[in-house]
Amino acid sequence: MNTFTARPLLGCIADDFTGATDLANMLVRGGMRTVQSIGIPSADVTTGLDADAIVIALKSRTIPVSEAVEQSLAALAWLREQGCEQIFFKYCSTFDSTAAGNIGQVSEALLAALDSDFTLACPAFPENGRTVFRGHLFVQDQLLSESGMQHHPLTPMTDANLVRVLQSQTGLNVGLLRYDTVSQGVDQVRARIAELRAQGIGMAIADALSDKDLYTLGAACADLPLLTGGSGLALGLPENFRRAGKLRDFDASKLPAVLGGEVVLAGSASVATNGQVAAWLEAGRPALRIDPLALAAGEPVVSQALAFARNNEQTVLIYATSSPEEVKVVQHQLGVEQSGSLVENSFGEIAQGLRQSGVRRFVIAGGETSGAVVQALGVQLLQIGAQIDPGVPATVSNTDEPLALALKSGNFGSRDFFSKALTQLAGGAQ
């Protein structure tokens, strides 16, 4: 039985925590009241919720394919039980996963479970500089494979040809929905999709250079059971439901104010997060770096970080952000998995300790770090509020004592994001 006051219309499965938040942000901007769940929600957590869209955040981007498929299918089953009319599989706008998967395999499994034979794949997010042309993904003015993503420590992307990348991850035939079709509008896109299906194409990479293209794709795909892509592709989906008379007219972004202390935690090694940490340091604001090697050696890094935060009158930044070269050195010494889990677990412990000290507002950089922190804080459900920067909204948890959280993908946000996020979280709804 559906326990929602308003039946959810759109069910979303995201392959990491910040990606889920990014998508939820897009849906709220479109006027859909959106909640985000950390994993598949329990019945007691969801009772009485009023939502137009539900986003389930998994941690499935880099896990073994079989596990990613299993978790995604379980999320799908739950969303269908709630009555969702359409499913959206969200992955990063840089299309990153492991060389072996999991975008293609998960998409294929979801298609089969939905008894459908076709879906689009479009990671374009022009607002954040991600565009797709002739099936090639660009980050700003550079091909994905020349953008810095080729050096990513966990998911290096060395090929910008998404048709080729996706085809290596699925047994279905992968095609291309080219820009010359997309630019002609909704009817032409629908006609081309029909042609691709008739040719036995199961997935098609869709070109998109602007938000207009994403609105076109969204409208053309209103009847597809499954869509896959970055959050940009979700731009046009709220309007589909509005056009059908299924959306209410109210401010979907309004959040309650949360009082208490605040902190910034940064664990991402991305270029954007490195710049944000640098901006904080240049401003002379208090910051402490977490050393993975010190953690591995058993030094009291967590207690030192907590003491640093408690003894500072100003808001502090605690970070493990490093250059790709520094990350590789640590990974070489500790192993990729251990170096990552050490840092993530330490941030979770730090967040727990800070909450006990009265911190209620958290700005967190990095998908893995965000996942570890929200788990440590016992957060299962987030209400999504107004956007801070493209792809990053303010959120408030459903915990007994609400927490205000800004969960930022490593690659997202302006150089002054930390300051902007703190200001917005302190002000409640914007």
Brief summary of the model shown:
With 430 residues, the protein is an alpha/beta fold. The chain contains 16 helices and 18 strands.
Describe this structure in words.
The protein is α/β, with parallel strands linked by helices. It has 2 domains: 10-243, 3-Layer(aba) Sandwich (Rossmann fold), CATH 3.40.50.10840; 261-427, Molybdenum Cofactor Biosythetic Enzyme, Chain A (3-Layer(aba) Sandwich), CATH 3.40.980.20. It is built from 16 helices and 18 strands. It has helices at 17-29, 43-46, 65-81, 103-113, 162-167, 179-182, 186-198, 211-220, 237-243, 271-282, 292-296, 301-310, 324-334, 336-356, 367-376, 417-427, and strands spanning 10-14, 34-38, 53-57, 86-90, 119-122, 130-133, 136-139, 142-143, 173-177, 201-206, 226-229, 261-266, 287-289, 317-319, 359-365, 381-389, 392-397, 404-408. It has a 15-stranded mixed sheet, with helices on both faces. Helix 2 (43-46) links the parallel strand 2 and strand 3. The two termini are 35 Å apart. The model is unreliable at 1-5 (pLDDT under 50).
